[in-house]
Amino acid sequence: MQRLDSFASQNQVVDLGPWLQYYAFDVVGMFTFDKKFGFLEQGKDIDSIMSTIEFILAYSAIIGQVPALHLLLLGNPLLIKLMPPMEQWNQTVQFTLKAMRERAEMKPGGEYTVSNTDGKDFLSKLASSKSSEDEKMNVRDLVIALAGNVFAGSDTTAIALRAIVYYLCRYPKCLAKLADEIMKHDKDSKLSSPINFKEASAIPYLSAVIKEAMRLHPSVGLILERHVPPQGVEIEGHFLPGRTVVGVNPWVTGRNAETFPQPNEFCPERWLEVPEQELRAMDNLLEFNFGAGARKCLGRHMAWIEMMKVIPELIRRFEIEFADPERDWHVTNHW
Ligand code: HEM
């Protein structure tokens, strides 16, 4: 908010896109390593981690659809022999190791010691699970779990935040309605500074706006694949043989007209004006933005808290509008 204040006080146009991602990254740093990465402070893509993630996703989006290409590109056996191991040039891993090294001493063979394991951050929790031999995690396990947060938790949340801000600016009446509700709560001294999750949850139109923007613009835009077990499976009356790849794209579930009439309309009210049972069906479909089953997003509650806190704070403090209402946003699908 301080950084945005400095732009606002100079009446300067600001691209909120990167700033929302800096925020998401710093939050990941806090709950993963109990450390601010400093994206907001420095106002830049530290160690090019954001562009690295974008590159990996762009690559994976293509390879996910045409897996054979991988053998000619990064999976080329010749390249694997010539290039240093992936963990040396994969910036996500390097970035995670750098953050870990500030608290952890890592020894060859996978042993490690971590200072301050009393915190609520992931590194503390995972490192203290060492006490039970069965659950003992080696350095590799730790890096995988923590790098997972760095990789999965920032641009997904940033995409959702951007969609929320975008749709609010596209639909100024909804923005005005939300601003009114927030200001009313503020006037009645129901909001601390910064707004906490419980207070934000008491503003029904806020969660309706967030859900509606996420419905129209899920952060993941290709199918979430699952493999049919060897014996095959019957889905909705169709028999699918073993090993068939099945999946649904959240962009499809979110536009299911049976559940969401006039699916292309941005209408937060739809989440507030339905009977309980219909709302449950809508929530279930929206939940698919985070996947389903055993591999469902592990950070979904964190993401929800992050969004519920920052959006009302932004609207309470600033009046937001498009710099150029004639220009639409440019979107690409990198998974
Ligand atoms: C709006 C924000 C987010 C969205 C839309 C989102 C979406 C997803 C999706 C679609 C998956 C794959 C699920 C599947 O295949 O069924 C996933 C996995 C995952 N997400 Fe998120 N995510 C978000 C935020 C976060 C955050 C903040 C974290 C950080 C803790 C996180 C951590 C993870 C992890 C660790 C996985 C892998 C789970 C596994 O494979 O077991 N996500 N997420």
TrEMBL record:
Transmembrane segments: none annotated. One of its GO terms (molecular function) is monooxygenase activity. Keywords: Heme, Iron, Metal-binding, Monooxygenase, Oxidoreductase. Its cofactor is heme. It comes from the Eukaryota. Heme binds at C297. PROSITE patterns: CYTOCHROME_P450. Gene3D superfamilies: Cytochrome P450 (1.10.630.10). Belongs to the cytochrome P450 family. This is Cytochrome P450. It comes from Lithohypha guttulata.
